[in-house]
Amino acid sequence: MSNKTLDFPDATVTLSASAQHYHLFEKIGSPYEGNEIDLTLFISCYNEEIFIEDTLAVTTKAMTIVGKTYEIIVIDDGSKDRSVELVQKFINQNPDINIILRVNKKNKGLAQNYIDGAFIGRGKYYRLICGDNAEPIETIVSVLKMIGEADIIVPYYTSAQGKSAYRQFVSRIYTHIINLVSGNKINYYNGLQIHLRYNVMRWHPNTRGFGFQAGLLCLLLDMGFTYKQIPCITIERRGGGGNAITLRNLRSVIHTIVSILLRRMAPSAKK
After folding, report:
1. In the chain, how many domains are there?
2. By mean pLDDT, which of 140-144, 147-151, 161-165 is the weakest?
3. What's the mean per-residue pLDDT of the chain?
């Protein structure tokens, strides 16, 4: 067996005869292809016993309508209620559905679980589904039907039922600031975006709080990945509450803003 060399748009790759025993040449040159599954869905779960069964039911029904191959990765982040028990019950009752349940021994936070789920998954595309059943089935279906029309699908909410006026105001201010420092024109940064799973693994941000979605999206847009925005609705099941506005998340947002600004100000590496 001789050396093998092929040219790709951004590089030339040569594998020795020995290296070809351990590496699939096509996988190196085409990291987005060759996935066994169309879509990996990461369902976040932290004390969601009220909602988690409905979330799983709505998600699987939506995927039946969409008609793509998929897997569900539920990561429980140290729930103190019956969430894990109910997910296990759903798995037992639905042995034909491709589901993985990971139960963290300690709380890691949504951002870290989001990254971990991408490494566990096997889908070409990747999306977060919140465990509190915040999206109607119509929203999930309309977003997932957009898969393949761009590298990134960016939902934005024309209606956020049950979300307090204060939180909606904070969201608008946050979006305005991120657009200002990044130069983008995104309608909403904290929606449940669809990404190529490889990009989440390769380019995931180093923040672990509220700003991780904006950080990842802005980085990928800077790199030239295509995107498409889609209007949809969401429902706040917790009556407008939530723990998004915390000191930890405030630090994460500041970190994200500074990172985006510094990257924009840095000299281009292109020659």
Report:
1. 1
2. 161-165
3. 90
Is-contact 182 257, C-beta < 8 A? no
Closest CA to 195 of 172, 179, 218: 218
Q: Residues 224-252: pLDDT tens digits?
A: 999 999 999 998 876 545 555 677 778 88
For residue 56, what are the domain limits? 35-265
- Residue in the block written with tokens 């300690």: 106
Within its chain, how far is the Cα of 126 from the centroid? Answer: 6
The closest alpha carbon to 100, from 119, 81, 80, belongs to: 119
Which CATH number goes with the domain that contains 114?
A: 3.90.550.10
What lies within 8 Å, CB to CB, of 215 at 6+ separation is 205, 207, 256, 259, 260
Quick one: tokens of 38? 């169309």
In a domain, 39, yes or no: yes
Q: End-to-end distance of the chain based on CA atoms, in angstroms?
A: 37
